[in-house]
Amino acid sequence: MSLLKSLLNLAKKQGDVIKGTKQNDEFVVDGNVSKAKLGAGDDTLTVTGDAWKIKAGHGDDTVIVDGNLWKANLGKGDDVLEVGGSAHKIKAGAGDDTVVVGGDVHKVSLGKGDDNLCVEGDANKVRAGSGDDVVYIGGDLGKASLGKGDDCLDVDGNAQKIKAGSGNDVVTVGGDVGKVSLGKGNDQLYVGGDASKVTALGRGENQIMIEGDLNKAYLSKGDNDLFVGGDVTSKIKGGKDDDLIWVNGDLAKVSTGKGEDQLYVGQKAGKVDMGDGNNLAVINTLESSFKSGSGNDRLDIAVNNGKIDTGSGNDTVYIGFHAKDVDLGKGDDHLILNSFADGSFADGGKGYDVLTIVGDESNYSITSHKGYNYITDLVSNSTLKARNFQEINFVEQSESDYLTEFDLGFVKDLSSLNCGCGKDEITL
To answer: Which domain of life is it from (predicted)?
Structure first.
């Protein structure tokens, strides 16, 4: 037996029994209620103690329970339910309902209508139904299904599973979250901690911010913005349109799909596949591989410890320290190197390709053998093996300004979202 059920046994056995009429009834119970059936009409019920079972019926009803509540069915109408303590099960029914619970709640079903739910404690299961709903959970959340409509869900603590459904939804979680499915629509998601799995289904322009670490994310069709403050430990899969992906920490694996995508990795990147399109990438350290398909790509890597293949198109690649391989593929490409390791390799591919090395030309020697150019840094005694470059130039300084093209305005917007219920309510 649950603790709440045990506490409410006295109300069940010894509480008052209330039966309403078809008129507009008003009841005040100084104590507990075992059972209340209000019937038709716009009714008011006030209980100073606990309540076991309440059925409000048709009409615009107001029910206030100062203590704990086991079960309530509000029925049709624009109803108000206020519970000072905790509640086990609440069914709001059709209509624009307002439900406030001062403690914890096990299960809430809001039904059709534009509903408001405010739970100051924990909530195990919330089903919002159709309509533009606002849900606030002051503690932790087990599961929530928001259904159709432009909904707002605000969780101060952690959440296990959230399904937003169709509509333009706003979801904020102050702590960690397990799984989030955003559904169809232009959705906004903010997570103050870590996230295990984020899925954006259907077509929509979604904005997602994870302050901590992200395990995996699957983005939908549409222009998606994703910010991760920590690491991506598994993978990100983008959609077919223009995605912006920003990762402050390490990124294990990413596939951005088609579209003109932007990628930033603040620390180490493992496997990167940007697909077709005119893509932009800024990466601190590439550890494994980078590849892109057709399109005019721009790439800035501070340290390259992996293999780069930019595919077809007129590509521009900046590398701070080049330790491994780069293949620019088809097209008129430009490779700019600040420095390179001994044994590193560069291939311009087909097209008119230019290799630019940052440094004084007098500090380098170039020898040719069987179609390869061997460029040796006389200071570090490191040699780069290169081929298929129609020009090899030396400059004093060269750096990209690619970072200025990332628009992170959505990050500020997402970090200030909330759904009301004692806060400044946002407009959906």
So the answer is: Bacteria
Helix (H, G, I), strand (E, B) or coil at 276: coil
Listed by start position, the domains of the chain span 213-285, 296-399
Strand ranges (DSSP E) for 147-261?
152-155, 159-163, 170-173, 177-181, 188-191, 195-199, 207-210, 214-218, 225-228, 232-237, 244-247, 251-255
Amino acid at position 230, single letter? G
CA distance 208 to 177: 13
- CA-wise closest residue to 348 among 321, 372, 382: 372
pLDDT values of the chain reduced to their tens digit, one per residue, 428 residues: 466 776 567 566 677 898 988 899 899 999 999 999 998 889 999 999 999 999 998 899 999 999 999 999 999 999 999 999 999 999 998 999 999 999 999 999 998 999 999 999 999 999 998 999 999 999 999 999 998 999 999 999 999 999 998 999 999 999 999 999 998 899 999 999 999 999 987 678 999 999 999 999 999 888 999 999 999 999 999 988 999 999 999 999 999 999 999 999 999 999 999 999 999 999 999 999 999 999 999 999 999 999 999 999 999 999 999 999 999 999 999 999 999 999 999 999 999 999 999 999 999 999 999 999 999 999 999 999 999 999 999 999 999 999 999 999 999 999 888 887 744 343 33
Distance in angstroms (rounded) separating the CA atoms of residues 200 and 177: 15
Which helix H or strand E contains 264, and what residues bound it?
A: strand 262-273
Is 159 in contact with 181 (CB distance < 8 Å)? Answer: no
Rounded to 5 degrees, φ, ψ at 28 are -125, 120
Number of C-beta neighbours around residue 20 at 10 A: 22
- Taken as a whole, the chain contains a residue count of 428
d(CA 350, CA 327): 10
Name the residue among 288, 197, 281, 278 with its Cα closest to residue 245.
Answer: 281
**Dihedrals φ, ψ of 318, to 5°?**
-105, 130
CB 188 within 8 A of CB 205: no
Instruction: Give the DSSP letter of residue 8.
Output: H
Single-letter residue type at 292? S
In angstroms, the CA 43 to CA 52 distance is 18
Residue 3 belongs to what H/E stretch?
helix 3-14
Q: In this structure, what token pair is assigned to residue 190?
A: 């903010």
